UniProtKB/TrEMBL annotation:
This is MFS transporter. The chain crosses the membrane at residues 7-33, 45-65, 77-96, 133-152, 164-184, 215-238, 250-270, 306-328, 340-362, 368-388. PROSITE patterns: MFS (PS50850). It is found in: Cell membrane. It comes from Candidatus Avisuccinivibrio stercorigallinarum. The keyword Glycosyltransferase does not apply. One of its GO terms (molecular function) is transmembrane transporter activity. One of its GO terms (cellular component) is plasma membrane. It is a multi-pass membrane protein. InterPro entries: MFS, MFS_dom, MFS_trans_sf. Keywords: Cell membrane, Membrane, Transmembrane, Transmembrane helix, Transport. SUPFAM superfamilies: MFS general substrate transporter (SSF103473). Its main location: membrane. Pfam families: MFS_1.
Amino acid sequence: MSWKVVLAILTCNVVMMSSSYTMIIPFLPLYLANDLQADPDTVNIWTGAIFAVCFAVTAVMAPIWGKMSDSRGKKLMVMRSSSLIAVAYILGGLVQTPLQLFFVRILQGFAAGLWPASLSLMSAYVPKTKVGIAMGIMQSANICGGIIGPLFGGVMAEAFGMRISFFIAGSALVLITLITLFFIKEPPRQQAEPGAVKAPTASYGSLLKSGTIRMLLLCTGLTNMVILLLQPIMTLYIGQLRGTQENLLMVSGLVFSFSGIAGAIAAPIWGRQGQAHGFFKTEVISLFAAGVLICSQFIPSTLIPFAILNFIVGLGFSGIFPSANSMIIVNTQTSERGTAFGLLFSAQQIGGTVGPLLGGVLATFIDYGYIFPIAGSVLVCLSLFLFFKAPAEMRRNPTAASATVQKKRANINKIKEQIVAELKAEAAAKQDSASAAASAGKEQH
């Protein structure tokens, strides 16, 4: 299959995946309070626990699913995850108590892995010279779903209640399963990288020996911790800024979408810049920018300036994950990328486990506004640590490396052409010599 066709199909899948997730997850605190009748004094604790348990289970399972995608097939892992998540969403719309939702989130954690499986499948098709733009488009699709989801979910929740959102999300995941089954082929392992020797599936230990991989795990884990530290309290903070709970789902969905719109615009740009100037540079810059902007979100005391800042935050955030995903592809072989993406996703889920729990505790004891500078400072410190401590292999420019390879190939081709020319000249000389000898023999007779 053409990598462009695969990218188009997976882009559609990712939009549906992300929108189905974001149409329900940001509103879980209100779902707990309004539909599941959670005690108001324990809503923050339940929210943290229900967010965290899914990420904790996913952190354990993600490397296993990633390794299986290398050994059993990348397409199979996409279908496994999408079908099981569909079941989890439908059950989420049927639960009656916070404890039941807690167990459904455990199932969802076991099923998770659709995003890294999709990235792994895409990486088997995309040429290395197009990695940046492909990862940028995939991330943009992920963010676009993040725009559609809260808006659509907010409208549906206001009109029909939260439960209908779970059923719609489940239907979207069923559609992803069917599209993958009928329209995407499993990439031939031998043909994923032309000329490459078939390699055994990578072990976790061999990948973790790489300083680049370890640094990327740290970056994505802490970034996701910051995201999930803020996400559970964002809707409640928006209500606090407005001073009313009226139409809160719809308004908070709109504010969520501002960050997504910015990210959808910026992600492909970050991807192109990373391909041209180095993914390491875009990673450091986007981490620092996102951190500073999040710190500033505690300043507004009204909703409109906060919403504008949320848009600008999306511009910074959208460069972090595509740069990390691109560096994974650049620094691994096709036969080990499923395992590598599984480890990366596991690190994100560990961050996602810590983030909601920490956010729930902080929201219980301090004002929501003070959580923003705490979260932003983590990313600022992370960007500085990465800038000073990253290994040399992580800093290399993929374009420069590609240019070096092309130069070597050009030199080899030039040498080959010279050898061929010399061989032709030698053959022509021998033929002339033989012709001259034959002519001399005829004259003697």
